[in-house]
Amino acid sequence: MASPLHVARGFAPAEGPAAVGSAKTLTDLERDHIVATLERTYWRLEGEDGAAALLGMNPSTLRSRIRKHGIRRPGPGPKDAAARNTDAWPTTQYLWPLHPMLQWMDFKMLSLIGRQRAPVIRVQRGVAPEEALVLISALIPNRRGQPVLNDWFAVRVTRSGAVTGALSFQELIGATGLGREDIPNAEKPHDAVQLQALLAPALDFAQKRMAETHKVFSAESRRRAAAELETLAKLKRLHHEQLELSLSGGDAHFAKMRERQREAKASDIDTLFKEYQSWVSQTLELDSRAHLAVAAVLVS
After folding, report:
1. How far is Cα 71 from Cα 122, in angstroms, rounded to an integer?
2. Whose CB among 98, 210, 231, 253 lies 3.0–4.6 Å from 103's, allowing a Cys bridge?
């Protein structure tokens, strides 16, 4: 039997260009960077989360760069067009897992569990009478707000508030049969106040567990970030060397003009690689704390 239990819910926030590989021209790098950013923002140029803001330039400048590189937004394919056509009859038919009326009733029951609430579910096995399993969803985003670590696990808490361990999501399913076995309605009331008191120690344990996960992942992320930044630094040096070679020599009368060209192109190279370096750092660096949400509480 499932009934709502009020819980404090954590924040759950909402990809980026691929890692730099072989050496490309500066024009190719800039074009790839712009295309990747446009795809990430679904080709939205303006606004706080638009491509222009992410690239650190004015929308008019971005439009000029798009025209310069001949970038075109890909048109919708046949599948996309069919998906947008709500009058089209589906070409593939699937059997209902439940009768449509029962599925409608299932949705209506789920709608009774409002925001900042979680169900209390009675299971037939896997939970001792004097304990509860608090199912927690834990998420750690990077500095760009993109989810990086997402873990589901159950914290085993006694009715006195002592944490005795944790189960992975697969272990939880194996122990309780949740989602695999029928759960009869026992028609037994539960003590919501007592169960509410178990959330604090469960969330405290979850925060410490994710702190350890954060520590391990961050160590590996720093190694990856250092390798990526070193690759970018080498590629940047290659572009500067190529620039010097392309502008070396020539008529002495045009020396000043070549120097101005060199300075302008060197500035473009520095700006582009600075954007890449910032993207690598923000993508591989995690937020300091995990965002936790109680998904359910399982009792016997």
Report:
1. 56
2. 98
